[in-house]
Design goal:
The protein is 69% helix and 0% strand. By secondary structure, the protein is mostly helical. The chain is elongated and about 60 Å long.
Length: 195
């Protein structure tokens, strides 16, 4: 029998901490956010924050994701093409929004802060990859996509160019680009009828 240690999180206190961390992130950027400032704004002790999160990066990422999660619902239209198109479009719209620009800031800060890099990989990018994986796997099971599809490569093929434009080239990221990207990718991964 597993013994749980400590008291469970108080939901209202947790919401207050996450909200405070998100507000500070939007106002000042990641570098200026401190656990002390989060505790002060949330009206809790630093010990409460450290009891629930290992470091500043973890609480800031959870605050960010708590605020952002409603903007990234996972579609289920019954079509892999439509689901991926909606998902990739929603991710792109989010990344180019005011809140989404925080991701680029966090990516930059993560180059110097391994705790932050681990937090955004685990809490933001891996869940998005898992969502895309599940959408593509459904397409394989329904026979829409090739049976021997390398799902990881497909995710990189579809979503990699979005991040390339966002972080490297700075070229336009809009719905038209995402649609062209997804349609071209699906030309290569769709199952073909036997002739």
């Amino acid at each position: 029998m597993e013994i749980k240690r400590g008291r469970p999180r108080n939901v209202e206190t947790q919401k207050s901490i996450l909200s405070a961390s998100y507000e500070l992130l939007l106002e000042n950027g990641f570098a200026a956010v401190t656990v002390e400032k989060i505790a002060d704004r949330a009206k809790v002790s630093k010990a409460t924050i450290y009891k629930w999160w290992p470091n500043k990066a973890a609480v800031v990422m959870d605050g960010f994701l708590s605020a952002a999660s409603a903007r990234l619902p996972v579609p289920d239209t019954g079509s892999a093409l439509n689901d991926i198109l909606i998902h990739a479009t929603n991710v792109t719209r989010f990344l180019t929004s005011r809140e989404g620009t925080i991701i680029t800031e966090l990516l930059g800060e993560g180059q110097f802060d391994s705790g932050l890099a681990e937090a955004y990989r685990a809490r933001y990018f891996q869940p998005r990859r898992l969502e895309a994986r599940q959408l593509l796997e459904k397409g394989v099971h329904r026979g829409e996509l090739k049976k021997n599809l390398d799902i990881g490569v497909c995710i990189d093929l579809i979503y990699g160019p979005i991040f390339y434009r966002l972080l490297v080239t700075g070229e336009t990221l809009d719905d038209a680009y995402v649609q062209q990207l997804v349609m071209n990718a699906f030309e290569g991964i769709r199952s073909r009828p036997v002739i």
